[in-house]
Amino acid sequence: MLTALRNLVPGGFLFTHAIFWSVVVMVAVGTTTVAAILSAGLVILVLESLGKA
User: Fold this and answer.
1) 9 near 15, Cβ under 8 Å?
2) Rounded to 5 degrees, what angle do the CA atoms 25, 30, 31 make?
3) How far apart are CA 34 and CA 40, in angstroms?
4) What's the pLDDT at 52?
5) DSSP letters spanning 9-48
6) Which residues touch 9 (CB under 8 Å, ≥6 apart)?
7) How confident is the model over 1-53, as pLDDT tens digits?
8) How many C-beta neighbours within 10 Å does residue 29 have?
9) Rounded to 10 degrees, what is the CA torsion of 3, 9, 12, 13?
10) Closest alpha carbon to 41 in 29, 52, 53, 33
11) Could you give the CA distance from residue 17 to residue 23 in angstroms, rounded to a whole number?
């Protein structure tokens, strides 16, 4: 138990992994959000183009 608590301090194994995986999750969520927004924009652009044609 003491080893696990020691690893939570900055520079420890668990602390480093917690930061790393937090960043990975934020990047993944951000990337997915951007992809969804771009896809929605593309669909709206196509629908508007078909409506005017």
Assistant:
1) yes
2) 100
3) 10
4) 74
5) STTSHHHHHHHHHHHHHHHHHHHHHHHHHHHHHHHHHHHH
6) 15
7) 556 666 666 667 778 888 899 999 999 999 999 999 999 999 999 999 998 75
8) 10
9) 70
10) 33
11) 10
Distance of CA 45 to the CA centre of its chain: 26
Q: What is the pLDDT of residue 31?
A: 94
C-alpha to C-alpha distance for 2 and 8, rounded to whole angstroms: 10
Phi-psi group of 37: left, alpha or beta (phi > 0 → left; psi -120 to 50 → alpha; rest → beta): alpha
Position 49 scores a pLDDT of 92
Q: How far apart are CA 40 and CA 35, in angstroms?
A: 9
Structure tokens, 47: 């629908």
CB-CB contact of 40 with 32 (8 Å): no
Cβ contact 39:33 at 8 Å: no
